[in-house]
Amino acid sequence: MMYSPILALSFRESMKNLGMAMSNLGRALADVLVQNLGYSCGNFPKNCDEKTCFLRLNRYPPCPFSRPETGAACGLVSHTDSDYLTILYQDHVGGLQVMKDSRWVAVRPNRNALIVNIGDLFQAWSNDAYKSVEHRVITNAKRERYSIAYFVCPSYDSTIGAYAQPSRYRSFTFGEYRKQVQDDVKRTGKKFGLSRFQV
């Protein structure tokens, strides 16, 4: 296939427009969730903009060893997201599963809906009023899967504090949190997340 600067520009513009729309949606959703706690904050989440939030396009190739019922051949291992909110669109193939009542539940694809995950930072900020959702992706044995995810993240030097006191978590920056998560995964192979920051 030959490279086309026109197609490349069109794709870039489409992704830029999608990112802007997701950013606006993320702010609107955060505002609703904050108001639901009885808290008024017109500029929440703070320090989240086009330089700190990001869009990720994911492709999961088919895997003949996939076993959705057992979790074998994960395309993405079990984890929580380290942001405030994740806005996700998954294609018709499916594969996303969330942990509910100590069991994995498949999230059925809906072409007319987006999936919104609470992230670790929102859990800390809300003092556990909202919980970061544990999820994973199971590959399909015969079909590839695509998804688009937008992550609402603050700058690395932003302090994550609870909206009400006393806080269940000590004060920390997003950069400190990310570093701790990366260190834990390198050392142990798993993420401990917010448990490292409890008071």
TrEMBL record:
Domain annotation Fe2OG dioxygenase: ranges: 51-154
Superkingdom, taxonomy of origin: Eukaryota
A family per Pfam: 2OG-FeII_Oxy
Alphabetical list of PANTHER family matching this protein: 2-OXOGLUTARATE (2OG) AND FE(II)-DEPENDENT OXYGENASE SUPERFAMILY PROTEIN-RELATED
Protein name: Gibberellin 2-oxidase 8
Organism whose genome encodes this protein: Rhynchospora pubera
